[in-house]
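Reviewers asked in the last cycle whether our approach scales beyond single polypeptides. To address this, we selected a multi-component target totalling 631 residues and predicted its structure end to end. The input consisted of the following lines:
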Amino acid sequence: MGEALEVKGAERYKSGVMKYSKMGYWQPDYEPKETDLICCFRITPQTGVDPIEAAAAVAGESSTATWTVVWTDRLTACELYRAKAYRVDPVPNTGEGTDRDAEYFSYIAYDLDLFEADSIANMTASIIGNVFGFKPLKALRLEDMRIPVAYMKTFQGPATGVVVERERLDKFGRPLLGATVKPKLGLSGRNYGRVVYEALKGGLDFTKDDENINSQPFMHWRDRFLYSMEAVNRASAMTGEIKGTYLNITAATMEEMYKRAEFARELGSVIVMIDLVIGYTAIQSMAKWARDNDMILHLHRAGHSTYTRQKTHGVAFRVIAKWMRMAGVDHIHAGTVVGKLEGDPHAIRGIYDTCLSTHQEMRLENGIFFDQPWASLNKMMPVASGGIHAGQMHQLLTYLGDDVVLQFGGGTIGHPQGIEAGAIANRVALECMVLARNEGRDIWNEGPRILQDAAKNCTPLQGALDVWKDVSFNYESTDTPDFVPQVTASA
Amino acid sequence: MSIRITQGQFSFLPELTDEQIKRQLKYAIDNDWAVNVEYTDDPHPRNTYWEMWGLPMFDLRDPAGILLEINECRKAFPEHYVRISAFDSTRGVESLKMSFIVNRPGEEPGFRLQRTEVAGRQMRYSLHAYAADKPSGERY
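The resulting structure, written as structure tokens, was:
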């Protein structure tokens, strides 16, 4: 929608205030270049603000503009550096006749030279820097982003990647199994290690520190690391399998994080963990450390729901997932569909594709607005965690596939016969479902029967099925994709 | 005390029958993966390179034919571990998509966990298969 409005020549640089659309930030005829970074924003303009002016303002405020005309623009190749809003589409089922304000998907292209190579911090300082607090907008959301190959290639990407992670762990052809140690706070190091040992010996591949377990009075970090690694090695000896525990190295300073990471390496851990709240730069630093030290890097997305969940404002999680794959983490929590946390099946598919694709296709119904070539960056393992249990195995395998870590925290530790029994139940449920799927059975419909049959030879599985049989979380998702089925995305 | 090594996709299930194995082989073939038969008497989890029972079967498209090879291998090495893997040559994978054990020794003595105390409370761990004390071929 919309005509070109740009003012050119001397008039353009007359001192004073001028509409962003007139300053050149609205270019309806612009054809994005192969090397442009493209964003799709969902814009909710304030009442009375024209959507095209709003889109142009977003382009301006996330690139070169300020509130007034400045002559110093003329000392630069300013036409190149200006981001260009080139397309605005109304969001279906918003605006007049609905109970929502009018919203618009606006497409904005940024020249490659606006960004520093290999820097999530620099890229995001532009794209989500000032603009989200801009007054003429009621709300603003970054829905998706196309990173050009040229820029993608400057990033390291996952330190290890799905393929090498599986080779290192010697685990193929099935989802990996994990559990977060519970209670998340309060256990001593010695008791904590007990949970790790029982869960790993029972059949899980990984256990995990929770996001807020760092170094507190009840358990200082070195105690946790020492007891957990005793547990990991004992479990390996009992099963002949490689086992791991995500040692959370999140701390107040980089110096402290490196110290904890190095201790984890000295103890022989295969994996360490960080929280999203440490920030993009710290994440990139740890990813480089992980690549240099043969370490898998797990990321817990602590804090993300403060800006990913509401569909009119913030940053869609699929974009955060994209940034984290570029930044170089190996694991990312990405939703379960069936568990206790937010997750529409289509939105989750979009996130999983972002983690695992080599060339990602535009899928509007999944919230993916652009084709995304991944430029040979490694694949990142999605992690499904939060309110899932063995009785849902057929649904989890159908929705999430093989390349995922299924994390049953309560669903392991809360088992009535103990932690080891909980782990056995999960592993047996998983293996019988993979076997059945490979045999060509319709696990979506036959799943409950397949689990019941496997439970005949496995008391722990029967126990799990009995205790959690009626647990499900059927709430409507907040973040569902809205899309215009007939549109085609710009390259 | 005997343990059960739980490497592979299906070690927590009852031993697969030949019919069940054939259905898994069919799944691999239908996906265009190359099936490989390997055996070993060193079950250390970081023993990556098991002995190959011939080359990966890139061109054999018949589950019954592959099962014959498996049974030949089992006959030659009845007290070894035998595993089946399926290799996917797709760009971006170029690695295994399946791996499961189809033969194992009657007795699995398991592993000793070797602890070496070092500075502070730190420990260096190493895993040692009891069976590996004997020379290869005489272990099980």
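The mean pLDDT of chain B is 96. We regard this as preliminary and will revisit it once experimental data from Aim 1 are available.
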